[in-house]
């Protein structure tokens, strides 16, 4: 699907504390600024969410604004059903924040699970990845998994690059319009430690993500 | 190539900022020279940003002072003191902080901040996103006559802070900027202006009637306060911060702050772009003519505001006094609790205007509700290796899972003790409310009464109730977590750190105040701690156990930095690893300790617990408590090490 320059782009990023949700949100917003986006307004969570809790952020931007102010972006929160893209670092977090999704939504999910203490204590059940996929399909056909944690550990020897790999996958879906790859690279160079490593992770995410998208297209045909 | 911190540079331009960062920027453009606060979500990062500025530009220390105060009442009076030397001062606090500061503010408001200026920044929290309660603290603005701005975007945050300082100085009145967790932590564009340096020094000039609100001056200052507020009410239209979006519909909307954004998008979604909107920038006081002019053309007006009806009451009063025939609705359709969203506002407006909400939205809500039972919970919990978690384990063991025991919780990380599976807190009131409740409760029950408190809360307001407990020799066991940090709000470099660097200890305070039964323990030695708690609970009277162990998050960060540095020097370091072999699935580590670094898995077809090495910080508590000896410890480089584990 193609976007108009006046469209409001809505992205939900969800995960658990410490996975880099906020870092990724900021990267996208600062890259949007480099791309000359006219309005950006998004919400991030601080406070309690940092203690192993669930964490979500809403990123919203509008390339060009309408003269009539009432048609523009005004809220840092996405309306129910209005998300274009979900970037989820942990599968079950996509279900938890699913209310912002609809048939126009694309989900990219890291398949690495982080069970909470109630799962370990065997007092609650963690749904299978198949069940998660099936449930999210109730919103949209565009649900894609990537094992970003495994890829990060395999290539970089640590899980820290998960967020850049996930960003790469998100870029591959073309649901982040008007921001060019170069804008992300610029922001990474300015703001992150080990920029070379992170840019490599971004490219790796694009490569692996494109493969997954291509394969799924084949299986649908 | 790292760029310069755009928040602090003295250049014009457009920068993406959080609401809180924009507040700081506004202060720097207004020439603020003093700020004091106690940390609390959503205002903690205001202080962190100030501190960062001072680290990056130490030469500013001559012009600007930031204090992490010991509590909110102290911070408010500190700010008044600085303002009365002729300086501009900022006093941020969270909504419940205002309850603590209210005693001081009630008087400072009467006196007025002149010759300086004072702005209080209140971080409200509809939806209780980072707080222990939900309240509508907007009513303080009526009670103390605090003119109050409610910004919606970071740009407004910055502009209105500047305006608030200007008006505060001009009208000798404390101004309030009211943000919310949402507006404080939303990022948008901010147009930068020129920076103005704060005053290096001011001077206090004696004025007994102004600064002594006692009879007869109390009454005179109260009269003077009314006069100041009426002057402000008159000039509101000139400020041009209340904006009308015109339209021909006979039903209009009055709103402010974050709900304005939800309203705009909801109306657009419902195709109601002819509804006139009055967006209030200043929610107290209201200019009568501005309101009546807007109401005059309408049959109905919808007031959209979070929490208890505040604007609704005042607007109904204005309509009534001016004999306007307009129906005022709000709380009849909108909830008086929790945070709003575009979806919620659209749903309520759809009912009022007899419209159907967008199908995409109602479908999303219905579908979400159809499956939400399968989502496992993920509440906040103690970090891996947290000494507080280990203490709860010992409490649960020593009391046989809280048999005949009441745990009076408190505010700090340990606020999370009530979550399952530990469920180790029976009640929470407020900062130091736990020990106080325990004192009262212990006079009326024979149950064992235990109270919890952390070191920052102990300094905030915990010492007075401890003195009382000593005075009455209350039959209470008080457990004090001395973890050396104000951990819950993000480890601010606050006055607690200063005291620690001076060699203070809570043990000395307890001894000086006369605590009759005192033990200092380490929760990383859980068996010994369990025995000490058992002993304490068998003893009548006041008992205090101090858990002396640094916050694991900070200790781990420090240790990782040390290891990195030593590895760069090619030093051979002793390393410890814990692993599980022969697990009997007794669930002691998962349900009683419930460490998040332990996960349930299957090994060769057998169920077993496993330690997630990525998250384990090697505190060794699970190794100490495993009743089956199934948790093992390996030491790498045990013999030929250059730097021992304990030395890192």
Helix amount of chain B, in percent? 40-55%
Rg calc of chain B: 28 Å
Give Rg of chain A in angstroms: 17 Å
Overall number of structural domains of chain A: 1
CATH architecture of the largest domain in chain B: 3-Layer(aba) Sandwich
Instruction: Give me the oligomer status.
Output: heterodimer
Task: Round the mean pLDDT of chain A to the nearest integer and report it.
Answer: 94
Number of E-state strands of chain A? 6
Mean pLDDT of chain B: 95
Notable features of this structure?
heterodimer; A: 221 residues; alpha/beta; Pyruvate-ferredoxin Oxidoreductase, domain 3; six-stranded mixed sheet; 8 helices; 6 strands; B: 648 residues; Rossmann fold; 4 domains; seven-stranded mixed sheet; five-stranded mixed sheet; 23 helices; 19% strand
Structure description:
The complex is a heterodimer of chains A (221) and B (648). The model of chain A has no long low-confidence stretch (mean pLDDT 94). With 221 residues, chain A is an alpha/beta fold. Chain A has a six-stranded mixed sheet with strand order 2-3-1-4-5-6, sandwiched between helices. In chain A, 41% of the residues lie in helices and 16% in strands. Chain B is an alpha/beta fold and 648 residues long. Chain B folds into four domains: 227 residues, Thiamin diphosphate (ThDP)-binding fold, Pyr/PP domains (Rossmann fold, 3-Layer(aba) Sandwich); 128 residues, Rossmann fold (3-Layer(aba) Sandwich), CATH 3.40.50; 168 residues, 3-Layer(aba) Sandwich (Rossmann fold), CATH 3.40.50.970; 77 residues, Alpha-Beta Plaits. In chain B, β21 and β22 form a beta hairpin. The mean pLDDT of chain B is 95. The interface between A and B is large, with 68 and 75 residues.
Quick summary of this structure?
The complex is a heterodimer of chains A (221) and B (648). With 221 residues, chain A is an alpha/beta fold.
Please render the helix and strand layout as text.
The complex is a heterodimer of chains A (about 220) and B (about 650).
Chain A: E1 8-16, H1 21-34, E2 39-43, E3 54-62, E4 85-88, H2 91-96, E5 106-110, H3 117-120, H4 129-137, E6 143-146, H5 148-156, H6 162-172, H7 181-191, H8 195-220
Parallel strand pairs in A: 1-4, 4-5, 5-6
Antiparallel strand pairs in A: 1-3, 2-3
Helix pairs in contact in A: 1-7, 5-6, 6-8, 7-8
Chain B: E1 13-18, H1 19-30, E2 34-37, H2 44-56, E3 65-68, H3 72-83, E4 88-94, H4 95-111, E5 117-124, H5 139-144, E6 148-149, H6 154-171, E7 175-180, H7 181-184, E8 186-192, H8 208-211, H9 217-239, E9 243-245, E10 251-256, H10 257-269, E11 277-280, E12 282-284, H11 288-296, E13 300-304, H12 311-321, E14 327-329, H13 342-352, H14 359-371, H15 387-398, E15 405-408, H16 433-442, E16 448-454, H17 455-471, E17 476-482, H18 495-501, H19 506-513, E18 517-521, H20 526-538, E19 543-548, H21 552-568, E20 575-580, H22 588-593, E21 598-603, E22 606-611, H23 621-625, E23 631-636
Parallel strand pairs in B: 2-3, 2-4, 4-5, 5-7, 6-7, 10-11, 10-13, 13-14, 15-16, 16-17, 17-19, 18-19
Antiparallel strand pairs in B: 1-8, 6-12, 9-11, 20-23, 21-22
């Amino acid at each position: 699907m193609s976007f108009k320059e006046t469209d409001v782009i809505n992205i939900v990023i969800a995960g658990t504390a410490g996975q880099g949700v906020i870092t990724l949100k900021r990267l996208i917003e600062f890259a949007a600024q480099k791309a000359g986006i006219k309005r950006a307004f998004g919400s991030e969570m601080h406070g309690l969410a940092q203690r192993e809790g669930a964490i979500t952020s809403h990123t919203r931007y509008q390339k060009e604004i309408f003269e009539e102010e009432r048609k523009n972006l005004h809220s840092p929160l996405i309306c129910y059903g209005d998300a274009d893209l979900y970037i989820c670092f942990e599968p079950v977090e996509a279900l938890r924040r699913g209310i912002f999704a609809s048939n126009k939504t694309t989900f990219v999910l890291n398949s690495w699970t982080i069970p909470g203490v109630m799962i370990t204590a065997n007092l609650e059940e963690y749904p299978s990845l198949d069940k998660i996929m099936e449930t999210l399909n109730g919103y949209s056909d565009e649900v894609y998994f990537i094992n970003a944690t495994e890829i990060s550990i395999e290539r970089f020897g640590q899980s820290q690059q998960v967020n850049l790999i996930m960003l790469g996958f998100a870029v591959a879906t073309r649901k982040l319009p008007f921001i060019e790859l170069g804008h992300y690279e610029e922001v990474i160079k300015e703001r992150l430690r080990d920029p070379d490593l992170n840019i490599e992770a971004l490219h790796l995410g694009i490569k692996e993500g494109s493969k997954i998208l291509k394969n799924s297209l084949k299986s649908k045909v | 190539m790292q760029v310069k911190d755009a928040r602090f540079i003295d250049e014009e331009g457009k920068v993406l900022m959080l609401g809180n960062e924009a507040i700081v920027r506004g202060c720097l453009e207004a020439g603020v020279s003093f700020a004091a606060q106690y940390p609390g979500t959503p205002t903690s990062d205001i202080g962190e940003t100030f501190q960062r500025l001072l680290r990056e530009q130490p030469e500013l220390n001559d012009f600007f002072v930031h204090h992490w105060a010991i509590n909110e009442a102290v911070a408010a009076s500190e700010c008044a003191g600085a303002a009365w030397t002729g300086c501009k001062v900022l006093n941020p606090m969270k909504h419940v902080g205002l309850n603590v500061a209210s005693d001081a503010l009630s008087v400072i408001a009467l006196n007025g901040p002149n010759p300086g200026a004072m702005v209080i920044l209140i971080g409200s929290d509809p939806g209780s996103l980072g707080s222990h309660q939900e309240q509508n603290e907007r009513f303080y603005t009526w009670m103390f006559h605090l003119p109050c701005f409610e910004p919606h975007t970071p740009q407004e945050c910055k502009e209105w802070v500047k305006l608030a300082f200007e008006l505060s100085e001009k009208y000798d009145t404390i101004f309030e900027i009211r943000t919310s967790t949402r507006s404080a932590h939303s990022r948008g564009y901010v147009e930068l202006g020129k920076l103005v340096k704060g005053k290096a020094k001011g001077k206090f000039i004696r004025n007994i009637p102004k600064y002594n609100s006692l009879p007869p001056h109390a009454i005179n200052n109260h009269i003077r306060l009314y006069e100041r507020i009426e002057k402000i009410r008159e000039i509101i239209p000139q400020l041009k911060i209340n904006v009308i979006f015109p339209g021909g519909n006979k039903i209009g909307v009055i709103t402010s702050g974050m709900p304005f954004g939800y309203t705009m998008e909801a109306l657009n979604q419902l195709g109601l772009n002819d509804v006139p909107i009055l967006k209030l920038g200043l929610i107290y006081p209201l200019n009568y003519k501005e309101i009546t002019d807007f109401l005059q053309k309408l049959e109905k007006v919808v007031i959209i505001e979070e929490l208890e009806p505040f604007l609704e009451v005042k607007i109904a009063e204005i309509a009534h006094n001016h004999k306007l025939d307009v129906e005022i609705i709000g709380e009849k359709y909108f909830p008086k609790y929790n945070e709003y969203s575009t979806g919620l506002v659209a749903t309520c407006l759809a009912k009022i205007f007899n419209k159907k909400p967008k199908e995409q939205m109602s479908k999303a809500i219905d579908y979400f509700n159809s499956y939400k039972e399968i989502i496992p919970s993920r509440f906040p919990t103690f970090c891996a290796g947290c000494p507080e978690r280990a203490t709860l384990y010992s409490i649960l063991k020593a009391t046989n899972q809280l048999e005949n025991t009441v745990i009076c919780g408190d505010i700090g990380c340990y606020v999370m003790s009530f979550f399952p599976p530990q469920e180790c807190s029976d009640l929470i009131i407020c900062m130091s409310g736990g020990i106080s409740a325990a004192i009262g409760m212990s006079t009326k029950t024979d149950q064992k009464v235990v109270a919890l408190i952390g070191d920052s809360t102990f300094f905030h307001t915990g010492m007075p109730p401890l003195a009382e407990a000593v005075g009455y020799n209350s039959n209470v066991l008080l457990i004090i977590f001395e973890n050396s940090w104000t951990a819950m709000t993000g480890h601010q470099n606050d006055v607690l750190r200063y005291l620690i660097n001076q060699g203070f200890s809570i043990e000395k305070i307890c001894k000086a105040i006369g605590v009759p039964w005192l033990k200092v323990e380490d929760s990383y030695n859980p068996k010994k701690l369990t025995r000490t708690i058992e002993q304490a609970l068998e003893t009548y009277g006041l008992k205090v156990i101090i858990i002396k162990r640094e916050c694991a998050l900070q200790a781990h960060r420090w240790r990782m930095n040390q290891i990195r540095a030593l590895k760069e020097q090619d030093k051979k370091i002793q390393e410890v690893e814990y692993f599980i072999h022969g697990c009997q699935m007794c669930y002691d580590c998962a349900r009683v300790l419930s460490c998040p670094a332990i996960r349930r898995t299957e090994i060769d077809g057998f169920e077993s617990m496993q330690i997630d090495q990525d998250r384990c910080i090697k505190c060794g508590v699970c190794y100490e408590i495993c009743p089956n000896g199934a948790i093992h410890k390996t030491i790498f480089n045990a013999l030929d090490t250059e730097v021992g584990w304990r030395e890192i």
